[in-house]
Every structure is written in structure tokens, then in C-alpha cells.
Amino acid sequence: MSRQLTLRRLAHHYAPSKFLNEAAYKSNKKLGDQFIQQYETKVHHSEKITGTWKKLTYLVALPAILLTAIPVGKVELEHAHHREHARHLSDDEWPQQYDYQNIRNKPFFWGDGDKTLFWNSDINRHVQKD
């Protein structure tokens, strides 16, 4: 008996809804066609502008990068040659150290305490003349 009451009580959950015969949202053909038209217009514009930017990249940006890379590369090669020469200079041949250069009030807490964090032994020197 209790099983029948339970089934009867829950029967309303399994009955078909009266709203199943109707669409949940009534479509408007005119608005749908208008949306599709706007979407296709945006797609066409996107394809067109993408092509423009590709052409701009390949025809303007890449040649500009190449034309500026050549002289910069030459300058960097000269700079590398100069650094290689400076690497082999003795401390006496090294340019004069002024009072405001390489000031050390207390030692750094890394390494030997004399070199900065980004110390490059080929470029930086701390010539101490006593």
C-alpha cells in the first residue's frame, strides 16, 4: 500500500509536460536571416583585414627588420672585436679608474664580495691601486 502511495505521489515528475508540444523559443526568420547576414559580413571583413596585415608583415615589416639588422650586425661585430681586445689588456693598460667608480662600502654577500651581481670579467674590472 505504501508503495502505491509513493508512486502516485511521484507520478507528476514523469508525466509529459504540456510545454513539450511548443517550441521553447519562437524563432523569427527575419531576425535569423539578418544575424546570418551580419555574421557573414564580419567573416568577410576579418578575412580581408587578415590578408592586409599579412601583406604588411611580409612586404614592410620583414624587409625593414632585415635592412636594420645588417648595419646593427656590423656594429656588434666591431664591438665584439673591441671586447676581445680589452679582455687581454693588463690592469696597467686598463683605462683609469676614477673615485666614483666601483665604490664598495661593504662587500656583497655573494661570491668574493667584490663583484656585482651581473659582473662580466671580460668587460668589468675593479683595478685597485694602493
UniProtKB/TrEMBL annotation:
Cellular location(s): Mitochondrion inner membrane
InterPro entries hit by this protein: Cyt_c_oxidase_su6a (IPR001349), Cyt_c_oxidase_su6a_CS (IPR018507), Cyt_c_oxidase_su6a_sf (IPR036418)
Membrane topology: Single-pass membrane protein
Major localization listed first in the record, in broad terms: mitochondrion
GO molecular function: cytochrome-c oxidase activity; enzyme regulator activity; oxidoreductase activity
Coiled-coil segments on the chain, per record: none
Name under which the protein is recorded: Cytochrome c oxidase subunit
Entry's Gene Ontology BP terms: mitochondrial electron transport, cytochrome c to oxygen; mitochondrial respirasome assembly
Pfam family, one: COX6A
Family indicated by similarity: Belongs to the cytochrome c oxidase subunit 6A family.
Keywords for this protein: Membrane, Mitochondrion, Mitochondrion inner membrane, Oxidoreductase, Transit peptide, Transmembrane, Transmembrane helix
Superkingdom, taxonomy of origin: Eukaryota
SUPFAM superfamilies (alphabetical): Mitochondrial cytochrome c oxidase subunit VIa (SSF81411)
A single Gene Ontology CC term: respiratory chain complex IV
UniProt pathway annotation: Energy metabolism; oxidative phosphorylation
